[in-house]
Write a structure and sequence with these properties.
Elements: H1 2-16, H2 25-34, E1 39-44, H3 57-60, E2 66-73, H4 76-80, H5 84-110, E3 116-119, E4 127-129, E5 134-136, H6 141-147, E6 152-153, E7 159-160, E8 168-175, H7 196-200, E9 206-207, E10 211-212, H8 214-221, E11 222-224, E12 230-232, H9 236-239
The structure holds iron/sulfur cluster (2 copies).
């Protein structure tokens, strides 16, 4: 790890001196790991042809050529435990760490003369349908993760990864760098005969085909405490999933 850090540090210092250095996909992943990412995948922009209008990487950066997707896991205890405060704090900590990781990675990319945009891991986002109480980020992080080979989507519409199951949050960097893409995951990690997430949802918000009706989910998903804090209150669809991944952490 120390050698990688030195190597990357050397490359970036050369960039700072005006040297013509190209960061490879492998180096970008090591950099993202050094900045706190646990799983990293790369999707060339031509894989996003199905992205809805307004939510394509080129809607974020006109000359975008690659999307670097970074995932960070959170402890299983947070998911299985009973403290909503601990769960809320852990998730906010993960989002904040991911945003910092993407921000710093974008700054390093720009030292090479390329352009980069860190897409927020969670908030803020602009797209909001008030009647449907439906919000969307500028880029769907979970679909970007699938296109970067990090996992597959479960029936609850959450990303499932081979390493951590659905216990992972995501951030992306859209960049003009042309980076080699990772192979798509060929396996479907969602268990075919399983319907636990659909059955456990107290709001009955998960429809067949992996669509979650946000308006229905929002009635259970968060609460405001008497003190005025907003807490995550329901994660049954995450908690109950038996596809937990293969890493102990
Ligand atoms: S967070 Fe809760 S309410 Fe929302 S879809 Fe999952 S189980 Fe249903
Ligand atoms: S709970 Fe079952 S159906 Fe739902 S995502 Fe997990 S494996 Fe798939």
């Amino acid at each position: 790890m120390e050698n990688i850090e030195k190597h990357v540090g050397f490359i970036l210092s050369e960039c700072n001196k005006g040297g013509q250095i190209t960061l490879t996909a492998d180096l970008m992943k090591e950099l993202a790991r050094l900045k706190g990412g646990d799983i990293i995948g790369i999707a060339p922009v031509d894989r996003f042809e199905m992205a809805p209008q307004g939510f394509h990487p080129e809607d974020i950066l006109a000359d975008a050529r690659s999307v670097i997707v970074i995932g960070k896991y959170f402890p299983l205890g947070v998911l299985l435990g009973r403290s909503k405060a601990a769960m809320t704090n852990a998730i906010e900590t993960v989002f904040s760490a991911l945003d910092r990781c993407a921000y710093e990675l974008s700054c390093d990319i720009e030292k090479t003369g390329e352009r980069a945009v860190p897409v927020p891991a969670d908030r803020p986002y602009i797209s909001w349908d008030i009647d449907r109480q439906h919000g969307c980020g500028d880029l769907s992080q979970k679909h970007a993760a699938v296109l970067a080979g990090l996992g597959s989507l479960g029936k609850n519409s959450l990303l499932l990864t081979p390493e951590f199951g659905n216990r992972v949050n995501l951030v992306s960097v859209v960049t003009t760098m042309a980076l080699q893409g990772d192979p798509l995951l060929e396996r479907d990690l969602c268990i075919q005969e399983c319907n636990l997430c659909i059955r456990s949802c107290p709001a009955k918000a998960i429809r067949k085909g992996g669509k979650v009706v946000q308006k229905e989910c929002r009635r259970y998903h968060s609460i405001t405490t008497p003190r005025g804090f907003t807490h995550f209150a329901c994660w049954e669809c995450r908690k109950i999933c038996p596809a937990r991944g293969n890493l102990k952490c």
